[in-house]
Automatic annotation (TrEMBL):
Origin organism lineage: Bacteria, Pseudomonadati, Pseudomonadota, Alphaproteobacteria, Hyphomicrobiales
Organism, scientific name: Mesorhizobium caraganae
Record protein name field: Ferritin-like domain-containing protein
Pfam families per record: DUF892
InterPro entries attached to this UniProt entry: DUF892_YciF-like, Ferritin-like, Ferritin-like_SF, YciF
Length: 168
């Protein structure tokens, strides 16, 4: 279904469409994270990915909760954007030989994922508020907060350690 296909008529339709997009994205991220955990060498990075896998399972539950609050079916729709980000992450990490450079590559890929999630949740929260669904907005805001915290933590790890090791 194209983003501007004709079954999206109202802001409410667009909200539901985008909720189904992030639902698909979160499920793909849940599948991709174990591979990133396997590839990471730095113990702190590995632990960070493990923690975010747990959080991601919670994100999926919260998105389901929003479907329920909004009274629509929990359904996934393909999101080529997240597929592309995850595919590129896999390609790049497959091409990196040095373990420490690989950790830097994994952080960069993970941050691309976090930023995708942040843009989606930011939009969904704004639309939920506009639609008078502050209940949905509040649940979505919990996911956004965890994505932002993860992104910040990755920056911190990269700048304080991983990039330095990769440059050695
Ligand atoms: Fe997430
Ligand atoms: Fe995330």
């Amino acid at each position: 279904m194209g983003f501007f296909s004709k079954d999206i008529k109202t802001l409410d339709d667009l909200f539901v469409h985008t909720l189904r997009d992030i639902y698909y994205a979160e499920k793909q991220i849940e599948k991709a994270l174990p591979k990133m955990i396997d590839k990471a060498t730095d113990p702190q990075l590995k632990a960070g990915f493990e923690k975010h896998l747990d959080q991601t399972k919670g994100h999926i539950e919260r998105v389901k909760q929003v479907f329920e609050l909004h009274g629509v079916k929990a359904k996934q729709i393909n999101c080529p954007a997240i597929d592309g980000i995850l595919e590129e992450a896999d390609d790049v990490s497959g091409d990196v030989d040095d373990k420490e450079v690989l950790d830097a590559a994994l952080i960069a890929s993970a941050q691309a994922v976090e930023h995708y999630e942040m843009t989606r949740y930011g939009t969904l929260i704004a639309w939920a508020k506009q639609l008078g669904r502050s209940d949905c907005a509040n649940v979505l805001a919990k996911n956004l907060k965890e994505e932002q915290a993860t992104d910040r933590k990755l920056t911190e790890m990269a700048e304080s350690k991983i990039n330095l090791q990769a440059a050695e």
